[in-house]
User: Fold these one by one.
Assistant:
Number 1:
Amino acid sequence: MHQSVLLNEALDALRVGPEGRYVDATFGRGGHARAILARLGSKGCLLALDRDPAAAAAAAELAVNDSRFSFEATAFSALADVVRSRDLAGRLDGILFDLGVSSPQLDDPQRGFSFLRDGPLDMRMDPTQDESAAEWLARADEAEIGGVLRDLGEERFHRRVARAIVGARAQAPITATGRLASIVAEAVPTRERGKHPATRTFQAIRIHVNRELEELQSALAQAVDLLAHGGRLVVISFHSLEDRIVKRFLRSCARGADLPPDLPITGAHHGATLRLVGKAVHPGAEELDANPRARSAVLRAAERL
Ligand SMILES: C[S@@+](CC[C@H](N)C(=O)[O-])C[C@H]1O[C@@H](n2cnc3c(N)ncnc32)[C@H](O)[C@@H]1O
């Protein structure tokens, strides 16, 4: 089961109206999608995307029973192409991104995301994509591994962990999550309270293998022009690297072009394409009690000018 994070907050930020046209770029198990459909009337529509085949299977079931809903199994970096092919470009009332991995992905040891349950070291959201985590760890050199752990995991001990990985793989290929978790646990000299020592390494490798930050940059840049005037862009992030990208992107769109100060143009927002809506939203105490995975979630929203 996936417990949708910031569900009502996302619906409010999207301002779902009965005749609206929406995109859910991260279907997962359809928690947000179902809630959007519940607010739509017969003339509204929802298009969802996800690159995970298990999400696609869940979406197929929903599509059979609801003609307002359609789904495309793809990475969201193809957002503009998908939306254009359905003649919805510039006509969307809202686009939602609920980033990262779903609970079913994390909880299924066969997917290779979990440092708590042993399984094949895969970590691909789309298993048809070229390189698994094990394949990358087998081929990357120590400096590349260390750089990924530093930049995408903010791992203090990135050098030590990279050295330990390269040392261990010389003994035998690292193909299981359990083995990677214990290599990291041995290499990291101190523990962060309440965190498994491999948390940062697993996060970094997952983000790298799935090109998560590149996907996000690309999709955000495409999203703005797909919205109708007044349409809402809503993004839920789960770590600071994502949130920084979202925050900077929304602010730069809200600021508009950086023009030389002597141009005879009035108004501070010349060229702005978005207006920020409210402040960053975090889960309340009740949601955190019910779902500890919501801990690091942040929602940001903006409206197409
Ligand atoms: C946090 S879950 C979404 C949960 C969903 N909102 C729900 O309520 O069930 C994130 C989903 O986004 C998908 N995803 C992440 N990055 C993606 C990308 N670049 N392209 C397509 N899908 C992606 C993952 O496969 C995962 O199913």
Number 2:
Amino acid sequence: MNMEQILPVPSPVSSYWLSQPHKFSDLRSTAELPTQCEVAIIGSGMAGITTAYHLFHHEQPPSSVVILEARELCSGATARNGGHSKVKLSTLASQVSKLGPNGVDELQKFVQGVIASLKQVAEDEELDCELEIRRSFDVQLDDEDAASFKDTYQVCRDAGHTWTKDVSFALPRYLEQVTSIKGAKAAETVPCCSLWPYKFVTQLLERLVARYPEQLNVQTTTPVVEVSVLADGINAITTPRGVMKAEKIVFATNAYTAGLLPQFKDIIVPVRGMASHIVPQVPVHPHLSHTYNITFSSGQAADYLNPRPDGSIVVGGGGSMFKSDRPSWFNNSDDSTRFSSEVETYWENYMQRVFLGWENSEAEVEKVWTGIMGSTPDGWPHIGRVPGQKRQWVLAGFNGGGMSFIPIGAKAVAKMVAGDSDFVDVKDEFGIPKIFATSTERLQKAFAETK
Ligand SMILES: Cc1cc2nc3c(=O)[nH]c(=O)nc-3n(C[C@H](O)[C@H](O)[C@H](O)COP(=O)(O)OP(=O)(O)OC[C@H]3O[C@@H](n4cnc5c(N)ncnc54)[C@H](O)[C@@H]3O)c2cc1C
């Protein structure tokens, strides 16, 4: 085994989203690991399961698919995140100089497509996952940030950039009233989808298992420790339960990708994040109907908030409490422990402190957890054929935004796998931003920049 192997650690802490485990959480379709298959998917998060879904929906579905998962079903970042899909105004504004107007338009259109895809799949498959199409507030409490986004937006709006058309600024004189955020200096809304990602993924798998009992085999608690290519070009996947041959492989391993694909070392880096679930003891009315990203001071990562239909709220971020302690989060794939109790004090009275109307809610922290993201130097995921390989594809490195990129990325990967094709062959059909394409050149550039 590779000495630097990054594998999901055993016994991850639980999260709010995992509070209702699916009956398939420890599914093994067969007692023994199959000896071979047409397509092996490594990873059972949003990326792995939506890829399987689209593979089976392709006009030429594979004859056999095996999903290999190191731990319980969907126990990685997909079960530990903020549960919303959106692209922040700050992201769009910051990319204008790098991607140009067309690039930013392409990015926003892609995320809009992802939101539509989540809704479509949830409705088609009758997934009970609290999916709602909402608006999301980006709120700035810093005057400089507020002014800078406004300026970029104004210039781009005047120039007719399409991405500005679905961004709306809250009226400056009613900011606190409209957002409920104390001290808000600016606020914008963008489209978003809120959902319970674990329920979306596990119920989608349940539908596939029922529909394709002969073709689909799921093996949980089966870590892949090595992948090699045999002389005849077939892949050999080594696990503690034996070796399986696969004609094709999809790496849906996000933060852990470099553990199996050394070319992604230092390119997809595991990064630990923190989130919480806060419950008011006294009902708060009216119900918060938007999701939020709140930036308290310039240059600081935003907190993200997703009000649940029952009146509670998932709140994540808190980076200001731990970012100075780099080993506690960077290159850290340990989601079996939480941050220190000192760091976690951040969540105490959070809602009472930040939101108007919550002062007398007696809101309490019900749960705090950690989760592992796959961070990339340029901030974008890697999607496409694995550089240097013929029958392997990857979709990973989603940073803090997999819910906004994966559903269509997975559809595109399914098409590449079915057609034995490359990113460039499907890019236009799926409207995927070209910055998401993985390639030897991109890896080399990123590697040089990290040195
Ligand atoms: C705290 C937190 C908050 C976030 N908030 C948001 C948000 O609000 N919106 C948003 O869009 N995104 C958010 N994200 C990011 C988002 O959760 C991820 O981008 C997304 O879930 C990635 O999905 P995935 O399927 O690629 O990875 P995962 O869900 O991590 O799935 C990868 C799976 O692969 C398995 N695996 C890995 N290696 C192996 C191996 N060698 N053998 C077998 N199995 C293996 C893992 O066990 C895991 O189950 C957040 C992430 C965190 C941690």
Number 3:
Amino acid sequence: MQVDYEVIIVGGGPVGMMVAGELALAKVKVCVLERLKETTPYSRALTVHPRTLEILDMRGLKAKLLERGKPISTTHFAALDTRLDFSVLDSSSNYTLIIPQHDTEKVLEEWAKSLGVEIRREEEVVAIHQDQHGVEIEASGPNGKAVLTASYVVGADGAGSIVRKQAGIPFVGKNATFTAMQGDVVLKNPPESGAPSYFNEQGLVMIVPLPKGMHRVVLIDTERMAVPKEEPVTLEELRTSLLRILGDDFGISDPFWMTRFGNTTLQAQRYREGRIFLAGDAAHIHFPAGGQGMNVGLQEAINLGWKLAAHLKGWAPDWLLDSYHTERFPINTALLTNTQMQSLLFGSSEFSPSVIALRNMVSDLLQIPEANYRLATQISAFNVQYEPVGEMPSHVLNGRRFTELNLRLENGECQNAYELFHSGSFLVLHFGSDERLDEALDWSKYKHVHVVRASLAKGAANWHDVHTALIRPDGYVAWAVSQEESNPLEAIRKGISYWCGHD
Ligand SMILES: Cc1cc2nc3c(=O)[nH]c(=O)nc-3n(C[C@H](O)[C@H](O)[C@H](O)COP(=O)(O)OP(=O)(O)OC[C@H]3O[C@@H](n4cnc5c(N)ncnc54)[C@H](O)[C@@H]3O)c2cc1C
């Protein structure tokens, strides 16, 4: 079947743009269909977390976000008084970047466009059919109906995903039990401390400073928790709730955007159906606690992109494409559990003295550095470790996040290893001077693998014994072979052919 595109992405939100960019890096012919004329100015997400900053750094995008956002060294867990300390994480991205989703989307869209992605706005997808040869998409726009074809489709079309529905993938979990409110507003007399949270028997209030002198006010009012999500929020409602919970409305006025959201917690039963994949909110939704939804969506976009590209370019090993679901599904299951736990601490079931006592106890426990660190690595996604695959010798680095190594290259220059990922290739890092590496394989057959000989310019935990490591395009260690290995070249040969197939 002659197709118009190798991949069509439905939905040009942050996740769709990221998948599109990843595919375009690998020279895949890709098109994004987005129903909106332009990126919405109303930003749901405000936080970009450490691991997301790292992967964006690998694509040369972090600096662009830093120009528009404000770093803070902590994040919250269930709006408890003790915040999670990101500053202790082993990364130069050890902070939360406060940046409106609108700005993040703009950066991703510009990147995707610069790589040649075709973005068709004001095209709403209304029907999808797949067979063994390809996928046909019907889209409706100002110029009428269009029918487009592709080898594969990625549904990045948000919570109500038509792609998920048409693919017949069940969305499984729990419906909302309460709703919360949020307003991006002007506060004439804002609280003095930066981003305070308040919790009492009447409800919860969080206040976050925004650019341009605005503030985001998030509220759970015990008397408004049963209001349906669809009912618009009014300024008067926000003012009344603030007064009821705190006895102060902070001089609230001039709402830019107000919305209501619930704790619906659902996950797609599978992330792939034939030629159709799901990513981002199309695959999972949850109470937006701890600012994680967009972050995990971007992390799965980078997981999917290179695998789908590898398949389309013909070098992917058989198991690779399905590893998208295998790797990401359990991570998102844990995410949904995490946000449900936070909802309980947020008072989803009761705002009683015993919940207040529980919150105080958890908050106290988070003052223990190890406990704080444990949760910080969860929310930052630094704890993600993919199950090692292939018959490789075991190494503590296998499956782990690739940290930002400071390398000394053969020409004596130092380089941050993340800069070697701008093109989205695999990276083989060889430490030492084993001349036989060149003969181990016909490297010229592996155009998607970048081989670098280097030494560590600065010590890094767990790397001291590494002879050679293969780093995946999404920044996880596929395998590392130790200098103690009896036949390192044989292990490397096996590891490359298992992961990188052939051109
Ligand atoms: C109140 C609130 C606060 C949040 N705060 C945070 C936070 O601080 N940090 C964080 O990480 N996450 C946060 N989130 C979650 C975050 O906003 C989402 O996880 C993120 O937007 C998901 O991105 P996406 O690209 O998957 O989907 P979306 O952003 O929903 O994008 C989907 C796109 O698909 C388009 N589309 C839909 N249907 C069609 C169709 N049929 N045809 C064509 N186009 C279509 C839509 O117009 C949209 O542009 C928050 C969510 C809420 C509700």
